[in-house]
Amino acid sequence: MEPQLIKQLALGIVPPLLVALVLFPAFWWRRRATRQELPALTPPTLDNTRADPTWLAPLVFGLIGVVMSPIIASKLPFPPTGGADWLAFVALAGLVMGLTAKAIRFPIVVRWLVRLAVIAAVGYVSLRAPIHGRWSPQTSALWLAGFTAITGVVFWAAERHTDRTRGPAGPIVLLVLCFAANQLLILGYHSLKLAQYPGFFAAALGPVLILALIRPRFTLAFGGVHVPVLMTAAALLQGTFAAVVNDDAPFPFVWVLMLAASPILALVGSVGPLGRLTGWKAAAVRGGLAALPAFAAVGWAASTYEFPTNDY
Amino acid sequence: MKVRALAVVTLVALAGIGTALMAAAGRAPAPAPTIGAFAIDAVHTTVVFKVQRINGAPFYGTFKKIDGSFNIDPANLSASIVDVTIPVESIDSNNGGRDKHLKGADFFSAAEFPNLAFKSKSVTKTADKQFEIAGDLTARGVTKPITIKALQTGTGPARGGGTAAGFDVTFSFNRSDFGINYGPQALGDEVAVMVGLEGVKK
User: Fold this and answer.
1) Which of A114, A221, B18, B198 has the fewest CB atoms inside 10 Å of its own CB, making it the most exposed?
2) Cβ-contact A263, A196 below 8 angstroms
3) Are A229 and A154 in contact (CB under 8 A)?
């Protein structure tokens, strides 16, 4: 690989990793579970997380998305034209939603109506060009409905992991999702640029996972998943769309559905005796379950990938 | 739980229908030749682009397809037009993997923006057989004004009948102005384009 390409890829990995490495321990290190809290390690609620810096995850992930998007693109056109140009704004929407989720607990119906509307809006800006230029209203509606449905389910599943558990189980599921999306976008959909967006969060979630292993009280509850899920979904939508239209990936929809199954399958780790596991054991079970479909999709995409005969 | 499972299945099914309909997404049609103008002879027209590889050599690639028409009439410059469309899918960089990358979201985003286009606004004669053509270049959904240079290289009877005319066309632009901004560490910003443009008027 050429040094220039390594520099470009490092640009998307190193800053998020360093930011997470510094900020998460700085705010969470003192939040050691007390003896009274230990037996329960009760699922996070707005009340019992009031003293925890749970605002940090949506803030850091949101700022990573907003700041890193123009950095890796080097120059973003304004107003945005292509779907990828909107990703910084997707991060901004996720940041606002994430911080709001921490501050105010709206009724579940309101929460989900807003989320689905935002997800549909993300789909719309990602596919704005074909929707306005070439697609019939029916085709556009089906794409948006499919995207909103899949992303909604992934959002729900990812949030079940982060909002109902403490420790590393939540971060590892999110890490698997983002890392697999990063690899899938490179190997399956041939886009280094789109791959870098979930790559930001895969890099940032590395230190978060280690911290959560050391500090079982850690949680990404109430807002931690918004930015990573929205940006990863938008990048995958654009990668899938490009792969289908350019006809340069054999099974783009199957791969993306396998990836979407990752946090859903990991929910098996929250049922029955598996659900009583904590710490690294819970992380191993849920991470393993999440990895099964996700890494199978990556492996499948890799098997179809034509490695360049030389560096370009 | 059953309701949730049903909801998940329904949503995934919706995505499946979206998949099936995806293939229906068509591409923008090429512009029809202007009446009285020279229709571009794609067989005898060559589009070459050049971009500097940082720490390397200038790199040359081509577009295999071009559509449109032109009519550069020194006697009637105000009526002269150039209207050209180049399908991005026809890019050829002599490496299949690189072609996929160039067509993808990192560069031209051909799925979103299938064509490059140039439409003239005015034509000026600068010297004998030399012209400057001001117009709008559209790439990756962004339209910017540019000026291209055209040197008339030949005209006469066409092989299949009618009249042929040829021009050597050159221009350059900064790819970042059009949102084609990925990999500044690896590739230069300026893209030079050279077109051996030939058209036939029946």
Assistant:
1) A114
2) no
3) yes
- The CA radius of gyration of chain A, in Å to the nearest whole number, is 19
Q: A71, A75, A135: which to substitute to probe chain B, counting the most B Cβ within 10 Å? A: A75
The answer to whether the CB of A73 falls within 8 A of the CB of A84 is: yes
Output phi, psi for B87, to 5 deg: -70, 125
Per the model's pLDDT, the better-predicted residue between B5 and A225 turns out to be A225
A73 neighbourhood in chain B, CB within 8 Å: 181-182
- The residue type found at B63 is F
- Residue pair A67/A92 in contact (Cβ under 8 Å)? The answer is no
Tokens coding B182: 């990925």
**Residue in B closest to A142 by C-alpha:** B18
Candidates B107, B181, B189, B190: best to mutate against A (most CBs of A within 10 A) is: B181
Mean pLDDT of chain B: 85
> What is the value of pTM for the model shown?
0.86
First to last CA, chain B: 71
Please name the residue of chain B whose CA is at the shortest distance from the CA of residue A239: B105
DSSP string, chain A: --HHHHHHHHHHHHHHHHHHHHHHHHHHTT-PPPTTTTTT-PPP-TTTTTTS-TTHHHHHHHHHHHHHHHHHHSS--SS--SGGGGHHHHHHHHHHHHHHHHH----HHHHHHHHHHHHHHHHHHHTHHHHHHT--HHHHHHHHHHHHHHHHHHHHHHHHHHHS--STHHHHHHHHHHHHHHHHHHHTT--HHHHHHHHHHHHHHHHHHHHHHH-TT---TTTTTHHHHHHHHHHHHHHHHHHHHHT--S-HHHHHHHHHHHHHHGGGGGSGGGGG--HHHHHHHHHHHHHHHHHHHHHHHHHH----SS--
| Per-residue tokens: B140 | 């990756």
CA distances from residue B29 to A21, B107, B154 in whole angstroms, order as listed: 51, 22, 30
Q: Report the residue of A138, A153, A193, A265 to disrupt the B interface, i.e. the one with the largest count of B CBs within 10 Å.
A: A193
Whether the ipTM is more than 0.90: the answer is: no
When CB atoms are compared, the residue of A76, A135, A246 closest to B103 is: A246
Q: Which of B7, B19, B100 sits opposite A248 (nearest CB)?
A: B100
- The chain A residue lying nearest B94, using CA atoms, is A312
Task: Read off the pLDDT of residues A103-128 as tens digits, 9 standing for 90 and up.
Answer: 888 899 999 999 999 999 999 999 99
